[in-house]
Specification:
Elements: E1 2-5, H1 9-13, E2 18-21, H2 46-55, E3 59-65, H3 67-70, H4 76-92, E4 99-103, H5 119-123, E5 135-139, H6 142-150, E6 154-158, H7 163-173, E7 180-183, H8 186-195
Parallel strand pairs: 2-3, 2-5, 3-4, 5-6, 6-7
Antiparallel strand pairs: 1-4
Helix pairs in contact: 2-8
Length: 203
Amino acid sequence: MSVWIPLDENLAASARPLLLVDRDGVVIEDRDYLGDPSGVVLLPGAAEALALARAGGWLVVGVSNQSGIGRRRFGEADFAAVMSRLDALLARAGARFDGFYYCPHVPADRCACRKPLTGLIDQAGLSGRLGGRKVWMVGDKADDIALGRSLGARCVLVRTGHGAREEASVRERWAGDPDVSIRADLAAAVDLALADPPEGGGS
């Protein structure tokens, strides 16, 4: 497991609400093994949504599977260049991640950090610190939802990225779960999280 932006220990230990966010297909366009910073394109409203969440007192932590590194489609330096470009684009909208953690492994490595396993959450120092705080997970794949539900988080599948293709399977797998919702994009997901309905968040 690897870290791009470490989450401050005091923030990890705080009671501030937590927004866990996948990167590709949620914040930026999914380009399949993106290793070129020129390919970083923010999805409409994504940066503004992250800025809105942080302005509302939420911690924004990115959690991302980056098997392109393990598959040697791109290297760690390429990943860093992509993230630097993303950080710059987010900053223009007054947004940023409070922490960002990624798994560089391929599934065959059987690591502990590839979503839906919780190794990235462990590395962020958040394990055992989620009780009593609001926790939401936003992603475009079933693995994101599975991670969030294993943490007891409310989850939103967005229809951007792979989300439209995964919607049917997510609806079937979590049928009747009021803590799994489906929304158009990150902006709509953040609006839902900020409202934090006490019951019946599903759709």
